[in-house]
Structures are given as structure tokens and as C-alpha cells.
Amino acid sequence: MITAVLGVLFFGFADALWRPSVLHHGLHKVLLHRTVLTTLILGLYLLLDIQHFKFNIPMIGVGILSGVIAGFGLYFLAKAFSLETTTNVLFLNIFTLLIAQLFSFILFKETIQWKYYPIEIGLSILTVLCFNGFDFKLRKGLIYGLLASICFGIAYPLAGVPIKEIGFKTTIFIQEITVLTIFFCFGYFIKKTKIDLKIYLDIKILALSVLSAIAVILFFYSYTVIEIYKVNLISNFHPVGGMIVSIILFDERLTKYQILGVVSSIIVCLSIFVN
Question: Is the pTM value of this prediction over 0.70?
């Protein structure tokens, strides 16, 4: 369980770096350069244990599918960070948990406490309304954040399928190189595929890339040692770490509505965790 906790901690720290990086360098540049470095790190990590590589075409296909969904999720996440505060985006993660629960139930028959589910959905909607200032017309940043949560809620449990068959190292590399391919293809159409190594002199970009790679390794390794639903539960507390880092390092401040939204989100996480 310690690996899941550490993975979530690193995810939180990394997520706090998205907004300042995107605002300074631009959306696609950050996505591309971050993913280039994380793919290299995960590729080297796989090579260290290449003798255990298992070639299984169906499972590689599932890994690619998971990567495609995660790639869209990552794009939506970065786009959300360019439009909303870090706290607003991170605490939408409760929808990742709710979606992940459904897909874990479908894929692995993991139980859901259905009697609490409507309450959790209601509190999750309250969280969104709080972050939206109780305006029923959602801002674009929150919409992108919700789309990211849905994508990750599908991609994470789906990745658990190939992890069981070909291992977590192979799965995370396949997923990451798929994401990188998506960003390169997207960059080709908008004519922004140039790699600028000087960007890694920015400590925020370097930390974002390295922390993301470490977080992915720890997070998906946890799928091999404890139940998937427990990993997903633990993952929902990563917004707390991200919020603290953004407040301390980047001087973000919470409004009264954001505080209410954070409390509502944490209540949902605790409810699911306890039940």
C-alpha cells in the first residue's frame, strides 16, 4: 500500500506544476516535452527488466486503447489547467473515482455500495457547482476537467487488464508511447512538433516530467500487489497534496466556494473509502 500512497503523493506534486508550466510555455509544448521525457524514463525502466517482457498482441492492443483514452484525458487535463485554478481542476478527480468504480465493476466484478452511490454523485455535483460559483452554465475549464476525469476513470481500470497478463512495466510503457504518438500526430497537424531541449532547463518542466514518470511507476505497480479498487480509492486523495503545493509555491488562494467544494469532494472520497 505504501507504493500507492507514494504514487498518489507524486501525482499530486506533479499536477500542481501543470498550470504554471502551461501558462508559461503553452499547452502543446508542455504536453509534448513532458511526454517525451516520461516515455524515455519508462522505456529505460522497461529495459532494466526486458527479460520478463511478454509479447501478447491482444493485451498490447488493450494497452494501446488505454493509452489512447489516457492521452485524451491528459490533453483535457492540461487544457483545464490553462483555464482554471489548480484546486478547481484537481478536486474534480472525484468523478474519476466514480467512473473507475463502474468500470472496475464491469471488468473485475468489484463490488460497489450502490445505496451510497446516488449520495456520492449528488455531493460530486455540489462540488462542481461550488467551483463554478453556483452558476449552472459550466465554464470551459471545468468541462475540460470533467472530460479528463471521465477519460482517466476509464483508462486506469482498463490498464489493469494487460497489467495482469504482460506486467505493469510493459503496460505503462505501451500506454505512454501511445500518448506520445498522439501528441506527435496532433503536433504534425498544427505544425508544432519541434523538440526544444532548452525547455528542460525550466525546473518546473523537469520536475513535472520526472515526478509524473515516478508516480506512474508506483501507481501501476500497486495494481500488482493490492486490489485495484483500493489503489483507485487511495488515488483520490492526491488533490490534497497538489492543492497544498500550489498554495505554498504558486500563491493560489481559495475562495469560500472553493473551500466548500474541497470539503464536499473530500467527504465523497471518505464515504467511498469507508464503504
Answer: yes
